[in-house]
């Protein structure tokens, strides 16, 4: 974790910057590197290894989408460097692109663990499912339960996690920023809304056949490129349906 030393507009009044003190994340850091601050991916614009400080800039869209604007001098923040592909991949993949914010509505201890309940917007809640993944203030967590009528979801923090992240330091009523991590959450939602029940079975068959072709190195690259151009599951199903004549052959 780190501590905010300075936050606000610079002398020109055009750039909103934040200076953070941290003894742990500046090893081999370079200008332009990404450091996640409370889960928000930010770019290092300056750093001072002697003072153990680094500066990041916050764009207007970042201030609108996140809760970073609520930080102040002395606030403690979660910090995380980008993962290296050579390290052990523990936990969930987090990109640092925040989907929105929510409000902490309850914090209840159970033994040495802590239940946290967060209220969020319907636009975000529809992609959250029990046992799905979500990052809250940069901490990747497993959703325990979703309360649709209350527009809430909850999760539990074990004692060790409580000592390493900022969520337990917050109070009921404060904002927390959210990043939907599990891509399977999105796929499940889109699949459940499909108006063609046979499309998914056809999609599965087409993918299996396509993968078999890829592994045998006999797939036609232009056709593979066409598949990868599809924007989402619905477009992909439609695209495959329109090319059923060749997909049934591969």
Automatic annotation (TrEMBL):
Coiled-coil ranges from the UniProt annotation: none
State any single GO MF term: riboflavin synthase activity
Q: In which pathway does it act?
A: Cofactor biosynthesis; riboflavin biosynthesis; riboflavin from 2-hydroxy-3-oxobutyl phosphate and 5-amino-6-(D-ribitylamino)uracil: step 2/2
List the EC numbers from the record: 2.5.1.9
Q: Sorted alphabetically, which InterPro entries does this protein's record hold?
A: ATP_synth_asu-like_sf, Lumazine-bd, Lumazine-bd_dom, Riboflavin_synthase-like_b-brl
Return the Lumazine-binding repeat spans.
1-92, 93-191
Task: Report the leader peptide range.
Answer: none
What keywords does the record list, in alphabetical order?
Answer: Repeat, Riboflavin biosynthesis, Transferase
Give the record's GO biological process terms.
riboflavin biosynthetic process
Domain Lumazine-binding as annotated: residue spans: 1-92, 93-191
Enzyme superclass (EC): transferase
The family database entries (Pfam families) matched by this protein are listed as: Lum_binding
Q: What does it do?
A: Catalyzes the dismutation of two molecules of 6,7-dimethyl-8-ribityllumazine, resulting in the formation of riboflavin and 5-amino-6-(D-ribitylamino)uracil.
Q: What name does this protein carry?
A: Riboflavin synthase
Species assigned in the record: Cynara cardunculus var. scolymus
């Amino acid at each position: 974790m780190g501590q905010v030393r300075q936050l606000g507009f610079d002398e020109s009044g055009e750039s909103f910057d934040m200076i953070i003190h941290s003894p742990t994340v500046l090893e081999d850091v370079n200008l332009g590197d990404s450091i996640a601050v409370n889960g928000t991916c930010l770019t290092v614009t300056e750093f001072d290894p002697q003072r153990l400080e680094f500066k990041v800039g916050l764009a207007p869209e970042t201030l609108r989408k996140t809760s970073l604007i609520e930080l102040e001098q002395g606030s403690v923040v979660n910090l995380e460097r980008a993962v290296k592909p050579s390290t052990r991949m523990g936990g969930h993949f987090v990109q640092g692109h925040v989907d929105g914010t929510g409000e902490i509505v309850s914090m209840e201890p159970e033994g040495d663990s802590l239940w946290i309940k967060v209220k969020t917007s319907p636009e975000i809640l529809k992609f959250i499912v029990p046992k799905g993944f979500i990052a809250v203030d940069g901490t990747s967590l497993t959703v325990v339960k979703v309360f649709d009528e209350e527009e809430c979801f909850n999760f539990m923090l074990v004692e060790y996690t409580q000592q390493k992240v900022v969520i337990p330091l917050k109070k009921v009523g404060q904002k927390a920023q959210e990043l939907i991590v599990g891509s399977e959450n999105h796929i499940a939602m889109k699949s459940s809304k499909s108006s063609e029940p046979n499309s998914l079975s056809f999609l599965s068959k087409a993918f299996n056949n396509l993968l078999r072709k890829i592994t045998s190195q006999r797939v036609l690259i232009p056709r593979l490129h066409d598949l990868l151009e599809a924007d989402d599951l619905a477009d992909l199903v439609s695209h495959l349906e329109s090319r059923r004549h060749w997909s049934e052959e591969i």
